[in-house]
Every structure is written in C-alpha cells, then in structure tokens.
Amino acid sequence: MDLRITLRTLAKQPSFCLTAILTLALGIGANTAIFSVFNAVILRPWPYRDPGRLVMVWQTRPDGRINGVAGQDYSEWIKQAGSFERLEGLIPQFYNVGGREDTVQATGARVSPGFFDALGVQPALGRGFAKDDDQPGTPRVAIVNYSVWQSVFASDRSVLGKPIELNGEQYILIGVMPKDFDFVGQGMLVWTPLIFKSSGEFQSNKMAVLGRLKPAVTLKQANREMQVVAKRLEPMFPKTNTGWSAAVNALDEIIEGPVRPALTALMVGVGLVLLIACTNVSNLLLARSDVRYKEVAVRSALGANRGRLMRQLLTETMLLACAGSLAGVALAWAGLRVLARIAAGQLPRVEDVGLDARVLLFTLGVTVATGLLFGLLPAHKLLGGDLQAALRESGRGSIHTRGGSKARNVLVVSEIALSLMLAIGATLMARSVFWLENENRGFIPQHLLTFRVSFAGKEARDPSQMAAYFDRMLARLKQVPGVKAVGAITNPPVEGYKQIGLYFVPQGSGPIDPVTRISAGIDLINPSYFKATGVPILRGREFGEHDQENAAPVAIISSALARRYFPGQNPVGKTLQVGSPGRAGDYTREIVGVAGDVRYLTRRAEDSIEIYMPFVQTTWPTVYVFVRTDGDAGRLAGAVRSALNQSGWRQPVSNLRTVEDWISYVNGKARLNSLLAAVFAAIALALAAIGIYGVISYSVVQRNKEIGIRMALGATPKQIRSWIVRQAVMLAAAGVAIGLAGHFALSRVLRSLLFGVSPNDVVTWLGAAAMLGVIAVAASYIPARRAMRSDPLAALRQE
After folding, report:
1. Where are the beta strands (DSSP E) in 130-227?
2. How far apart are CA 239 and CA 251, in angstroms?
3. What CA–CA distance (Å, rounded) separates 556 from 572?
4. Can you tell me the mean pLDDT for 102-126?
5. How far apart are CA 444 and CA 129, in angstroms?
6. Neighbour count for residue 485 (Cβ, 10 Å)
7. Which residues contact 675 (CB under 8 A, 6 or more apart)?
8. pLDDT value, residue 718
9. Cα separation, 797 vs 799, whole angstroms
C-alpha cells in the first residue's frame, strides 16, 4: 500500500525524482567505489595462513628508525626469542634469468628454507625449499613465480628439475609459485635459498626477517621480548649493536601503512560528498514539503495518525535512496574500471578491486543511512506543525515557511562548509603534485635516459673485471649519435631509496660514540656522472680518469654534508674515514670536491648526506646508467639497446625509460590522490552551487509578495538584485567560516600526503574561500534576474 502511494506520488514530479536520484547516485557511487578500494587494499586479508600472526622483525637504530637485520643478530634471535614459532630471513636481490631466447632481469630474494612454510603458501608446481637446501655443497635450487614460468620458460612443465641459469650460474628449478602469489606486493619473481656469501655479508644488516607469532603471544609482548634480546646482544657485538634495539611490526601494517593515510583521507572525502548530496536532497524535500502541508493535513483529518504519515514519508525517501543506490552502483562499477587502469602499479592488489559481497553490504548500509539522513528532517518539519491549521489555510502559503527557510539555510551553510573542506584538500594535493613535478631536484631530468643493470657471472666475481667490463659498456654508449654524456651511479637520484649506506668519520672528529655515529648514502659513480645528470660541482673537482683502482682513495661529498660536518670550512683537501662497499676494512679518503645537494622527492635537500666514490675503487653489482642526449631522450632508447648488443654486453638491462617518465611514475600515488580529491571536490562544489541556487530560487518564490511591495515602493531592480545576492553571500560567509574551522581540525589527516606545502597554507584557504564566494554569487544570479523582471502588480494580486 505505502509503496503504491509512494510510486504514484513521485511519478507526479519526475523532475524532482530525477534530480534527487542523480544527486544521491553521485554520493553513493563515490562511496561505493572508494570503499571497494579500501576493502581490497586494507580490509581483505592477505592469502597467507593465519595472516594476523605474521610479523616483520627489524633492528632499530639509536634514533628509533627501523633498519635491516644482520645475519649474526638473526642467528641469535632464533636461539633466544621465544615469542615466535619461526623466524625466516629474506635478502632482496636482482637476478639475471637465462631463458630460452634471451636473458632477462628480475627482482627476487634469497630466503631461508622455511620462508614459504611460515607464510603457509606452497608452490603450485614442484616443491618448496627443503631443510638442507641452504647448506654449502648442496645443489643450487630455485623457485620462480608463475609469470616467469610463463614468459621465460613458455609454461613448460618439463623444465622442473632441470638446470636454469641465474646470474651466470646453474640452478635446478624445483618449483613454480601459484599464479596469484605476490609477497606483500613487492613483485618478487625469483627465489633462492639464503646462503651468506662471506663473513662481511653475515655482519651486514640488509636482511628482512619474517616472523610467525605463537598463538598466545601478542605484538606488544613480542616487542618487549625483542628489546630485551637486543640488550643482551650489545655486549656480544659492541661495535655494531651498541645503542641499537629491535621492533616487531604486524605484516599487514608494513604492507598497508604507506597507503592507509591516503585511502582514509579519500574515505573521509567521499563521506563529505555523501553528506552534501543528502543535504541537497533534504533541501529539495523541504521545499517540496511547503506545498504538501495541505495534503498531509487532509490525510490526518481522514484518520491517519502521525506514525502512519511518518512511515509513508520515509517510504518515499527510502525509495529515492534505493534508486540512487542502484544508479550509484552502476557509476561505481564504471568508475572502478577506469580507476584500475590509472592506479595500476600505485596501489597494492588494485587488480582485486571489485564489487564483492562486503562492498554491496556496505552500499546497502549507506543506502539505509542515507534514506534516513535526508528524510527525517523534512518529515519532522512536515509533521511537526499544526496540521489542522494547515487544513484551514486556503492555498495562500505555508504556515511553516519561516521555519522551513531557516532549516534550508542551515543545510546550505553545512553544504558550503563541507564543500570548502574538500576544495581546500583538493587544492593542497594539486599544489603538492605541482611541487613534486616542478621542484629543483638538484639535477636536470630533461633529455635524460636511464636503465638499470646488474652484473652477474664471471664479470661480477672480481672487482677489477667488473670495473673493466663496465667501462667498456659506457665507452660504447658514448659513441651513439645524439649522446652527450653517460653517467652511472649505484643510488639513483630519484626515489630516495639507498642501496648502500655506511658510517663515516669526518676529519677532526673526536672519539666516536657508537650510539650517535653518523651514516651517509654511499654513491659509486663513474667520472662523467655529474656531467650526465647536471649535478653541479660547487668546489674542487670531479673524478678523473687518473682516479683508478690503485690510486689514492678519494671522495666527493654533498653540500649538505659539508655544511653540517665542516661548518665555515672548505672541506676540499680534508679527509674522512669510511668503508668501501664490497671490500673489507675502512679507508681514509681525501675530499676532492663538493657536489650540489640532490632532493630525492621524498625528503628535504638539506638531508642529502651523500659521499661519492669512484666506481673503479670500490665496485657494486647493481648500477643505474644515465644517458644525456641532445634531443628527445625517448627516441634514443632503441639505439642504446642496440649499442649494448653490438658491444657484446651480456648483462640484461631493465627499466629503460626517460628520467621524466620515472619521476612521473614515482609521483603517481600523489597524482592519483590529487585527481580523486579534485573529482570529489568538483562534485561537492557542483552540488553546493545547486543547493545555493535552490534555496535562493525558493526564497524568491516565497517572498514574491515582499519583492512586489518593495518595487511598488520604489526599489530599483539593481537594489532587488543586490538584496537577493546578499543573502547568498551571507550563507557563503557562514559556510566558509565553519568550513575553515573544520579543515583546521582535520588538517593532520592531510599532512602526511603533502609535499612542499603546509595543510594550513593561507593562500590556499583564501583561494578556496574566494572560489566558494564566486560560486555563491553565480548561483544566486539567475533567481536575482528573475526577481528583477517580475511585475509588482502581479505579485501583489497573488495574495
């Protein structure tokens, strides 16, 4: 019965229904889409056995930062820590995989034999690692991901149990992981047993440790025990462990932590959009209620009690909410298909985003809450007055007009406040992306081509052979037409990730406290690196061809290091003591130059504590090559690859791309956040404009007689327009004040998502407020023009 009456009532006002349904569809669709992402990335458990008990265990520096784990500490943890069922080590590594046609480079890791057992995941084909696979003298074995088995080995089952080539050495392929396996979204493709290659590597803290807590042990208890164990290890390894501790983090926190703030902010944003949509529909219903008083009064006089009338009114709002929800789900489905394409590589498990049962249940809950949210106030207003008095009215107006107008004004002020908060957030994110893409990074990314190469095979076994092989490759690249310079470095100046970091001692330092000792990023480069990348030499000289393996050890330091550790001095000619990667012992190196600071996109330039060393004096197996061109760098990619083949280069290269494309990829998450925030802010501003227009329009209709009297008494059209626009400006001013206060209260949510701009940037606040003011004036202009053209005599005759 209620449904039939509702359908008949709504059918009489198709424009109202369409407007309400589309408004709700935008709000509900946006919430459904973002919750789908939140569900796939944050809420859905990872496909491991009992994932809530999986943790990562780290060493922590004296300043509290987490760090990789040394093999010697890992061995003691296994003996002393009782909170874990097992502790398994992992060291990331690049692999050159020899395929049927060509050698390809793949990311992977060396892991302890029980690693996959700890996860509760086993190969889809073949077997996992056995207990003795990490023992010296046993045959080398390997496991590959499903994608490698398909692309490199053509999905050939017969390859299992047969030799394959990894880094120039023979391994037996024993297993293929399941198709959907991707350890914490890191894209690791090749797995080999963890065997420490030297005592130096055993002492180097570059390992990640996966743990599985015992059933009765909490994360807090495990952290407390590991801190006690770390204290016990200080006297055992005083040189490396003094002042260091340990930390235990839930595995899902490691995976989801970097993206949770952005997704939480987006969930807040779409929640605000939904509130604005509900506010708009409430305003529509309030305006509609003023002409329904008599209808409701008649039904009351015929015996319908207030509960019966409330049920009927809420049936109407729930029907609108359900229709808006269906349209919103359709919008979400279409939006997610677009989002999956633009977010590929930027969010973990984005390929799993979809409208599953949990998402649809969330949408149902949002639909019910929405129907109640925008329906209760109009229903209360409609039934809260004197229905008998409404029945006695003879069509000359509503007895609730004043109260209804006040409620509509409050709703519009709320809309403007919420819209302003979204507009400020979107503007700040857009400015942050602009800063990331246009900041001075300390080098020149234009006309620069790059690729990564990992040395393997006999060339990587001897530092001198590696350096010679490397030099031949660079010399061949310099001969490519259009190439101006070729540089190479172990720590690329883009992402902020450091392959190598070592402690150092500047000349003139007193006794070094192990707790407060300082470290720097160690960059191994060739002589023309600075010329290729455009990093300036501020003092001293670059490396030259005479800085060879057996020459005096030299170094170039960053300007930030010079300012901090050689204040007011010229550091050129001074020395520092620092280790050499790949070689035992510490070396005293003469500082021959000071280079400009490089900003690594994720930190301040003044934190760029760098020490550059000649590659030939201390080698490393993975380097990033930078090719400076005299034109479009992308056009030389084919020529560079061809030159490598012609030079007899046997090492595969990966990630051949322009540096501008690389920077664009690194900025992808920030750009995605900014784009989504801009979309939601645009929806909110459009809804706010519609809300202002509706309220002012309705106010003009309701005050038609007053306008007629004013004009009859001599008011000019310009004065009438100013009077009406002033109403909109007053509403906007109130909304802006509340919105600014709301943004200030929530600014902490945005802080971690911004680069180069403060969440409380006054210029952004003023710009967004001015934009809302312009929208308010523009939305009130049409009703104001309509009022200016009205006939005062006709308005007076209406009553």
Report:
1. 141-144, 163-166, 169-176, 190-193, 205-213
2. 30
3. 9
4. 89
5. 46
6. 19
7. 342
8. 76
9. 5
Strand, coil or helix: what is 144?
A: strand
The C-alpha atoms of residue 476 and residue 127 are separated, in whole angstroms, by 44
Three-state DSSP at 469 gives helix
Of the candidates 252, 116, 258, the residue with the CA atom closest to the CA atom of residue 175 = 116
Whether 168 contacts 88, CB under 8 Å: no
Q: Find the DSSP H helices in 97-154.
A: 115-119, 146-151
**Pairwise CA distance, residues 374 & 318, whole Å:** 9
Say whether 326 sits in a helix, a strand or coil: helix
Find where tokens 């104001």 sit.
784
Of these ranges, 283-297, 307-321, 651-665, 674-688, the one predicted with the greatest mean pLDDT is 651-665
Asked whether residue 399 carries a pLDDT value surpassing 50, the answer given is: no
**Weakest-pLDDT range from 11-15, 68-72, 474-478, 493-497:** 11-15
Contact 443, 595 (CB under 8 A): no
Amino acid at 587: Y
Q: Specify the 3-state DSSP secondary structure of 739.
A: helix
Strand partners, 519: 503
Distance CA(218)–CA(248), nearest Å, equals 10
Q: How many CB atoms lie within 10 A of CB 510?
A: 6
CA 318 centroid distance within chain: 36
Reported confidence tier of residue 398, pLDDT bands at 50, 70, 90: very low
| CA nearest neighbour of 524 among 619, 594, 444 | 619
Give the helix/strand (H/E) hosting 248: strand 245-250
Query: How many Cβ atoms from other residues are within 10 Å of residue 105's Cβ?
Result: 21
